[in-house]
Amino acid sequence: MRTPFNLxxxxxxxxxxxxxxxASVAHGALLDSSGLLAFEQxxxxxxxxxxxxxxxxxxxRLAAMGVDAAAVSARLGQLTDEELQLLAERLDQLPAGAGxxxxxxxxxxxxxxxxxxxxxxxxxxx
Length: 126
Description:
The protein contains six helices and no strands. By secondary structure, the protein is an all-alpha fold. The protein has a domain at 31-117.
């Protein structure tokens, strides 16, 4: 007499035997020395930036500006290797919040170039 329990357990055992015999596929690649060196440099740059951000003065400035420490950590993880290296090298030279006029000027020049090339239509004629 076949009960639903016997039928279900037989089905599960059959399924386990069928799928248990198949091998899993593992993907692997060789890691060359330049890739390992880049990984180590990224780790060092990330550690130096995080150490600088852990200082009380900088943490207080960021908190006063309303920047969340978790958001900063998440953004640091998304930086490219070049951006992280540049930030680590210039962290002591970069004043927080300075250069606003230069940024506005650069944005204006980029918008002007895009307008002249015809990519955007920001400055409409009246």
